[in-house]
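**Protein of interest**
===
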Amino acid sequence: MEAAGIDTRETQSLEIRLTQVELVYEQGVRNYRLLFGRPFKVITQERTYGRMTKQLALFKPGDVFALDLWDCGEYGTKEWSVFVLQAVAPGDVANPVPQVSPAAKILLEARGITKAKQAIKELQEIQDRVDPTTLPAARFLLTDFRLKYEGKGRQRVGQ
């Protein structure tokens, strides 16, 4: 059975294996968005209550994408995290990540205002040069390592 050129049986069986990412925009409260990535499918959940919109982005196993999770409180930014993730197949080792179901492989993780800003800057520089979805996972693991240990300096053992 086909609808709009898509085999619905294939789509239904794929959705069981797809990584689901819930994207939410609520003006002045939260913004959970994709920084990059090519979802297999995006479902706009037409539940727009005033200033809130929800979408569900679906990724095939192996797809790489970046997720920006920002929450605001009464006095400004409350929580801010940036992730570069790789969607996994059923049975693969994966990490729980907020807004991602069932889980994904974490290639880069930046938590807190300073680290999130640095991560976004690094990812933007990458995007300015190349499509980040075509890069190997090792590129993001290296960026993750640099962000976590940059500025910590070298220490010699025994001194």
